[in-house]
From TrEMBL, chain A:
Start and end residues of each RNA polymerase sigma-70 region domain: 19-78
Family the UniProt entry places it in: Belongs to the sigma-70 factor family. ECF subfamily.
GO molecular function: DNA binding; sigma factor activity
Organism (species): Sphingomonas naasensis
Designated name of the protein: RNA polymerase sigma factor
Organism domain of life: Bacteria
InterPro entries found in the cross-reference section: RNA_pol_sigma-70-like, RNA_pol_sigma-70_dom, RNA_pol_sigma70_r2, RNA_pol_sigma70_r4_t2, RNA_pol_sigma_r2, RNA_pol_sigma_r3/r4-like, WH-like_DNA-bd_sf
Automatic annotation (TrEMBL), chain B:
Keywords from the UniProt entry: Membrane, Transmembrane, Transmembrane helix
Keyword Transmembrane: yes
Example of a GO MF term: sigma factor antagonist activity
Name of the protein: DUF4974 domain-containing protein
Pfam families per UniProt: FecR
Amino acid sequence: MDEEGVREWFCREVLPLEGLLLRFIRRNWPVADDAVDIAHDVYERVIGAARSGIPHNPRQYLLTVARNQLINRAKRARIVSFDLVADLETVSIDVDLFETERRLHARDALRRVQAGIDKLSPRIREIVLLRKIEGLDVRETSERLGIGRDAVNHQLAMGMKALADHMLGGAGKIVRRRYAGRRSNGDEA
Amino acid sequence: MSRARAARDAAAEWLIARDQDGWSADDQAALDAWLDQSDMNKAAFWRLEHSWKEADRIGALRPATPPVRQESGGSTRKWWPIALPLAASIALALGLGVPGVLPVGSPRSAPAPAVAVTKVGGHRLIGLADGSKVELNTDTRLRTLVDRGLRSVWLDQGEAFFEVAHRDGQPFVVHAGPREVTVLGTKFSVRREGGKVTVSVLEGRVRVDDVEPGGSARSTIITAGDIALSEGTATLVTTGSKERVGDVLSWRQGMLSFDQEQLSRIAAEFNRYNNKKIVIEDPEAANIRIGGTFPAFKPGAFARLLRDAYGLEIEETPDAVKITR
């Protein structure tokens, strides 16, 4: 698998599962703040492994890697009890529950972008839209808004990162609450 | 800061820097080196690049009537109106979309647009006064006007490929019915079938605006490898395949290229170029998917290929090739 192929596979098959991955980590790991770091450790491994072969079932594979990662972490971290490690070893990687997830993602892609942009703070939203709708670069944006380029750079970077979190479905509390609601009343989506 | 967060921050900086004018080969080499440092860097960069690119879809998202309301908790939508002045000016410039109306602001004695036409099967290359080139596909009619600061083309029907000479401060605008394509320096094609407009970009960047009177402000920027399909109030952007754009543009070589498309669609495509029409009488045959590159002006040869390869029966008359089962 060449590098371009790995990148393409990662974006197409793995990234849409980010929401699922983060929920899996949060359910099975006591420290919520670690979730982003653990997810990136999983990505790193998955990318490395993809060079020698692409797994048939990315969902199953991703969660398996995540579970192993959690077990390794639990064994390394002394503050975590042995109970957790034992629990992790019996965590079932039941993917059927999430079978519809990715299709939903594709269908809702447009709505997610919109929702993601809605959630940005007004200033950052404005800067993102100047870029995306009017095609202004950093210099032009800084002239239009009368603020320094460093400020534009900084806010654009924040906007990019926040949008990625929102769109990939891993944006902390809001997304988790919504997800819990969806599960409890069947298939709202 | 954790490794993952550091990688995310760095990825955002790279992505912004790459987007600016003046990104050099050296800069690219530095980025490549950073990516090669670890798969963590790659994961962070690919992830951000992917979702940032996905966010280009916002142009297609503007609600039909932009809600104008104060921010009062709940969902905040006050960002939509940002693009409104843009749309308003476009609607004005287009004379509310009536084809052929000269833009407001040009002098009354403005020269009339030059008309260029091709018949079914025709193919024609024209040069404009500013050095830009326009290649007309089959059954196409367009009008061009290059005058002082203004460069405008009206695509009344059909399809054309544009190679636009870069001129600072002189936008090049293609009016295609309900859509307006503003060139930000590039090679691209526009195809119009009534209200349906397809824009495919081979190089550079263009902006597609919805200029339907009374409609909303929709604006989408697409870059090389992207195809924007517009119909009614919807705009769909498919991203990132130079090959597909290459397929769409194969008519420039007198060939038609398909990637596993339905025979019914392929027949419709052939019929754009030929007076001898392909008619599919068997509904099952219409759904067969076929890929490949074929000479655009030989529908008979294509049909015989179908007979030999798929066992379909064909019946050839002077003005049609019928495909029965």
